[in-house]
Design brief:
The chain is α+β, with helices and mostly antiparallel strands. It has three domains: 168 residues, Reverse transcriptase/Diguanylate cyclase domain (Alpha-Beta Plaits), CATH 3.30.70.270; 56 residues, 5' to 3' exonuclease, C-terminal subdomain (DNA polymerase, domain 1), CATH 1.10.150; 148 residues, Dna Ligase, domain 1 (2-Layer Sandwich). It has 14 helices and 14 strands. A five-stranded mixed sheet has the order 5-6-1-7-8. Strands 9-14-10-13 form a four-stranded antiparallel sheet, covered by helices on one side. A three-stranded mixed sheet has the order 3-2-4. A hairpin with a 2-residue loop joins strand 5 and strand 6. Helix 4 runs antiparallel to helix 5, helix 10 packs across helix 11 and helix 12 runs antiparallel to helix 13. The longest helix has 22 residues.
């Protein structure tokens, strides 16, 4: 009996994507430390060129820290629409090699190339041709990791950066992982990392060898999956059409906010954006959640990946309500979110506010009402006007209008 073909997963990650696009488009920036994002007092670094990384700047770093480390850096605002257009070009290149593409963000994706390797002379030859095709099409460089599964492919890609191509064959998986920090594994954040450290587990090899029963007593249901990951076992498929779990909008204020008019204006803007996106994708949701980060820090926390630097720890609060009927109506989402805010009775200033909708179901699956709600037709009409004339063309009247600022990723349901 012929054995099944080896599974090959490719992880592609553009090198310093946003910053590289800016350097490509503006040759005078080449060779200079370019930092995208962090242009305001509370901004966050979206991307840093490799010249900026030599000063310790990295993505997700607070802007004040980036300015302190690299005062001579060129700080640029994010242009998500442009980066999304370039990303679409890159994904069109990926599609030449396989239709099985799972986007992770604008700058990275997983590709299942198992069925394609024979057409391109093997996995290594395919990866090399993909890198060259992206470079020719966009003048940008992409790092690639090849392995039998998503976990190891992503790790291999990160180990090969920048402009890398690293292949991990099945018989090399455990050897590659053995000495790597356990924090490299999916789902191991600061809290879980500290739990593992307390058990004397610092590397993937140590985790793989740790007694299963004892690990289970400490970590519960997560123990088995973590041990599998530490051994390089990952059966998750590449999912080209992953179903969304939630839609959300949030923003960090330039200065702390406490005025109710401002809060309700922001909730209104977020509710409208969330509703527009779920309608565009054909969903409704049952659970409305409000996310709030308080403005007064309670101690310090160590920033992961920032050399152990301490940063203020701002408490994060969430409040949710599940509706009897799913909705895609911004007025309903707004109404519930404002009620959640009022019930929370937060008296101190806040620095971040978000609204999300989860518990999703396809809008087409619901039973059509005998007498349709006029609000449903209103939402579709507003979407059509904004699609044609821009998002600022029409909106709900509020005392203090608020504009949504875009983050690092192009979100589901955005045109």
């Amino acid at each position: 009996m012929t054995p099944p073909p080896a599974r090959w997963i490719l992880h592609a990650d553009m090198d310093a994507f946003f910053a590289s696009v800016e350097q490509r488009d503006h040759p005078e920036l080449r060779g200079r430390p370019v930092i995208v994002g962090a242009t305001s007092a509370r901004g966050v670094v979206a991307a840093a060129s490799y010249e900026a990384r030599r000063y310790g700047v990295h993505s997700a770093m607070p802007g004040f820290r980036a300015h302190a480390l690299c005062p001579q850096g060129v700080f640029l605002p994010s242009d998500i629409a442009h980066y999304a257009a370039v990303s679409a070009e890159i994904h069109a290149v990926f599609a030449r090699f396989t239709p099985l593409i799972e986007p992770v963000a604008l700058d990275e994706a997983f590709l299942d190339i198992t069925g394609s390797v024979g057409l391109f002379g093997g996995p290594g030859a395919l990866a090399h041709q993909l890198k060259q095709a992206v470079l020719k099409q966009t003048e940008l460089r992409v790092s690639v990791g090849l392995a039998p599964n998503k976990l190891v492919a992503k790790i291999a890609c990160s180990l090969g950066k920048p402009d890398g191509l690293r292949i991990v064959h099945p018989h090399d998986v455990e050897r590659l992982l053995a000495d790597l920090p356990v924090r490299r594994l999916w789902g191991v954040g600061p809290v879980l990392g500290e739990q593992l450290d307390a058990l004397g587990i610092r590397t993937c090899g140590e985790l793989a060898a740790y007694p299963a029963e004892e690990l289970g007593r400490v970590l519960g249901e997560r123990a088995a999956e973590l041990r599998d990951f530490a051994r390089g076992t990952d059966s998750r498929p590449v999912e080209p059409d992953r179903e969304p779990k939630s839609y959300g909008e949030e923003n960090t204020f330039e200065t702390d906010v406490r005025a109710r008019d401002t809060v309700t204006a922001v909730i209104t803007a977020h509710a409208e954006a969330v509703a527009r996106r779920v309608r565009r994708d054909g969903y409704r949701g049952r659970t409305v959640t409000v996310k709030v980060k308080l403005g007064r820090a309670r101690g310090q926390r160590v920033s992961r990946g920032d050399g152990g630097v301490s940063e203020p720890d701002y408490p994060l609060l969430t409040r949710s309500r599940t509706l009897r009927q799913a909705t895609d109506d911004d007025a309903r989402i707004r109404e519930v979110a404002i009620a959640l805010w009022d019930a929370a009775a937060i008296e101190e200033p806040i620095r971040l506010l978000g609204v999300s909708l989860s518990g999703l179901e396809p809008a087409a699956s619901r039973q059509l009402p005998l007498f349709p709600d006029k609000k449903e037709r209103l939402g579709a009409a507003l979407d059509a006007i904004q699609d044609r004339f821009g998002r600022d063309a029409i909106g709900r009247a509020v005392a203090t209008p608020h504009k949504i600022t875009h983050g690092r990723q192009k979100k589901r349901g955005e045109s």
